[in-house]
Amino acid sequence: MASRRSATVLLLMLATSGCYKGTSGAAGSCAGRCGENYNSGNSCHCNDLCDRYSNCCSDYNAFCNSQASCASRCGENYNSGHACHCNDLCGRYDNCCSDYNSVCQVTTTTTTRPTTLPPVPSSPLPVTDAELSRIADDMWYSDFNSATEGVDFNLNLQGFITSTGQNTDYSSSRLFSYMNENSVFSADTFTAFTALLDNYIARTGNTESVTSAEAAENEAFLTEIMKTQVMARLHDFLRWKGIVPYDEAGFKARLEEIWFGRYSREDGRLDTSGFEHVFVGEIKNGQVSGMHSWVRFYLAEKSGQFDYAGYIFKRQPGTIGVQFRWGSVWKNLGAFFLGTSPEFDMALYTLCFLTRTDDTCQFTMAGREMRVITYSWLDRGRYLATAYP
Q: Active-site residue numbers?
């Protein structure tokens, strides 16, 4: 699978402004195209991975590859059109310019992950929007199980929907036109995640009884995501702030409570959980409720369970809003990230849930302004009711 470390058209470093430019020059020249998104319709390319794939335009070096020194560039934003980089993350990704240390050692400070965390505060510390942005970025660039549009999967957007209340099918084909399943779904976290999707009753009001086998699958999924860099970084941040237990077992137990703790949406029955609502979806009052997972959408669309009707928006860095039918029941607007791993989705939603409970979670990620909405269920902050971008 193409990760954010190695895939075409991916950012590898912090960016606080747009890093990619639209194609404006002639298709065979890099004039005005340095750092562009990958476009399979172009005969040659002008981003920092074209050398790897031997498909750069002939004038790539002349237009895009001239920044070989850190002179006047120390601390710059990431720019995929540069041959080497001069910010505090280039060391992590082994793409600093050769004179980075000599030119930038005074004017920049290398950020390193602490080997020893500070003492646990006596009460939770506040989290600023700037801190949210830093940890969201850190998790985004640590999502090595992510899939990349144009490499691991392709979309067929088709109909653009301007009014979500019409319930009209504007698309005759599936949203996902290609998926490299052998690569994408081979990751252990994906395998553990997909094993959970058939553990639930679609309609609310039906008591969900968790079998021993299903409990074991929940445990296996949490165990796998706890092994990832994404979750390690989230845990470090949240325990530094005194928001979650310091030890991994305690943090894992808190995740289980947030995501798999059962509560009632209808008739007092234990008929739902945060995981079911967010990652699987439910049917309540004649409408689809929840369902904010691209993995779930892909698999349900492939099996014929979901029928894609069209899209409402598609934004960088990889979010989409779609309309679809689950059998005869409509979802007017379902939003989810594209290509992210299950651990990333759960980590980001957990971050927002614990730091901006029942509020809008606003931050910058991959150079883009982002907003995630989360709500708790009854007992404020104990169980997750919903989360979506």
A: 277, 292, 331
